[in-house]
Design goal:
Strand content: 25-35%
Oligomer: single chain
Shape: globular
Number of strands: 7
Radius of gyration: 15 Å
Order of helices and strands: EEEHEEEHE
Distance between the termini: 31 Å
């Protein structure tokens, strides 16, 4: 099952990623000023997957990727895939698992593993 991971960029902006059950990032969201905005968009995304559009593209370097469009607005950009089949598998994983996915918050500055 996939997982949504909330993190903070070096710039201070927040983002979320959808990570596959094997630990690979499938897509990364746009930036958010506040952490709770990530949580809100994740919930909206989970509840409206059937309305989402996956626009497929091919980069000049020959890699495949998609843009996730929700309510006529781009909300996320996928990682680059080497083949169209792998791209489709990434999309299928989102459709199959995103509505049931939990989310993890790694945006705090605390050390999640503690000190040794």
């Amino acid at each position: 099952m996939g997982t949504f991971v909330i993190a903070q960029r070096l710039s201070g902006a927040y983002k979320y990623e959808f990570v596959s059950r094997k630990g690979k990032t499938i897509f990364t969201s746009n930036d958010f000023e506040l952490r709770f905005e990530c949580e809100e968009e994740i919930e909206v995304l989970k509840n409206s997957l059937e309305k989402c559009v996956f626009m497929r593209f091919k980069s000049s370097g020959g890699k495949f990727f998609f843009r996730l469009i929700m309510d006529e607005k781009e909300v996320a950009l996928s990682r680059r895939y080497t083949t169209q089949l792998l791209l489709q598998k990434g999309i299928d994983e989102i459709i199959k698992y995103a509505d049931k996915a939990e989310f993890l918050d790694f945006s705090s500055a605390e050390d999640i593993f503690g000190t040794s």
